[in-house]
Amino acid sequence: MASLSGRPDAAQREAARQLDLHKRMREVEQAILARTPEHDLEPSLERIQAVMELLGDPQRSFPSIHITGTNGKTSTARIIEAILRETGLKTGRFTSPHLHSIRERISIAGEPISEEAFIRAYDEVIPFIEMVDAQSAQTGAPRMTYFEVVVAVAYAAFADAPIDIAVVEVGMGGAWDATNVIDADVAVITPVDVDHTRFLGTTPEEIAAEKVGIVKPGAVVVSALQPHEDVWGIIRARAGEVDARLVGEGIDFGILTREVAVGGQLLSLRGLAGDYEDVVLSLFGRHQAANAMVAVAAVEAFLGGGTQQLNHEVLAAALAKVESPGRLEIVRRSPTVLVDAAHNPHGMAALREALSDSFTFVRLVGVVAIFADKDAAEMLEILEPALDHVVVTRTSSPRATAPETLGQIAGEIFGDHRVTVVRDLPDALDVAAGMADEGGVGGAVLATGSVVTAAEVRMLLGVTSV
């Protein structure tokens, strides 16, 4: 309601300001989206380094923990952040890709960056980005990509906040990943396997050689248990080359005991500095227990060089309430609908083990949509024993495999009688829910195959919180 003077009151002015912010945020996001997408990147640090130098190297104004690997990066980052926040530190977290909003990629103090702060950081960096774009054009080089711009915004926002510690997940690879303009105190390497072969190589060893590029002189390297022995050798060699201290799961730290519990799992962990008995982790699956163990070691390494034990109550509180949206997440009951962002064979194997480990369903129906550049056959072969039936479909992404093509692949693995092809994801979800209900009480739906699959199913069911 307007005031008696005819002037807008405070509530009206604030509403108008918010509308302007939303409009400006949409404009900024569209400008970033117009750049080369992150799945078609330009491997180089030259452009992002040039922008950071022009900005005065804001990424050097805060310490950091840097995370690479093939799977588990985002969950590990979120667990590390949760522990650090529980100790009282103000955190910045950078992860990718996002589920629903670009602002999810940049988290400050545990919350997605506000529209106002995102716009402020973007306005700060865009003049320098345009300068670097112009210099690149003169030499025939490409302008900065979507991912590079978001990294620049993140580091500027972290410096402006300011934060006490940044937890940064690479986008892809390591050495030439745009995030790698930081010199992290702790480098975390989750399990390395084959993915993104167009850019990283076709073997675990080639991919590991790229990922260890985040390890900087004098850092502590925290490595998860590696599924390929030669990868461990590459990590060890890099640590020796730059005089970094290497600690590894199964050698310097590890899971002592693990039991499935209501809403998650009960763990006893051996960290770098001591044991932590009976802590509840609010995430499902052995792979999440391993992610938590790596996160604990990383925080021990950062806070006390691996010699100071974490407060048990602080750790227990952090693990009990940590969330990792889109990672074996229950988004609906009756029937139960789970979403998981598994998008490669290694991730699908972890998902299958977690399903067997943590859930007992009378009937489980899959809703699967996979990108065309992924090994759909191997992913489906891994998932097949866990599903009674699979409904193959597609997301809205232009990278999605055509449902008919995916159906042919699935038919060869599941048998045609266990495969239903539904072109559109909303219809596929409805069909799968009906099939799950046919099993009576205890039927469930699992939606997986890509981050976009998980995100779009969450949206369809009205779940947008992160």
Described by strand count, sense and barrel closure, the largest sheet is: 8 strands, mixed
- What percentage of residues falls in helices of 4 or more residues? 40-55%
The termini sit apart by 34 Å
> What is the 3D form?
globular
Give me the oligomer status. Answer: single chain
User: Uncertain runs with pLDDT below 50, 5 residues or more?
Assistant: none
How confident is the prediction overall: mean pLDDT?
A: 94
List keywords for this structure.
globular; 15 helices; 466 residues; 6-stranded mixed β-sheet; alpha/beta; 43% helix
3D structure, described in words:
The strands form three sheets. The protein has an eight-stranded mixed beta sheet, sandwiched between helices. Strands 12-13-17-14-15-16 form a six-stranded mixed beta sheet, with helices on both faces. The longest helix is centred in the first third of the chain and has 24 residues, at about 10-35. The chain contains 15 helices and 17 strands. A hairpin with a 3-residue loop joins strand 12 and strand 13 (about 335-340). Helix 12 packs across helix 13 (about 405-415). With about 475 residues, it is α/β, with parallel strands linked by helices. It has helices at about 10-35, 45-55, 75-85, 115-140, 145-160, 195-200, 205-210, 230-240, 285-305, 310-320, 345-360, 375-385, 405-415, 425-440, 450-460, and strands at about 65-70, 90-95, 105-110, 110, 165-170, 185-190, 220-225, 245-250, 255-260, 265-270, 275-280, 330, 335-340, 365-370, 390-395, 420-425, 445-450.
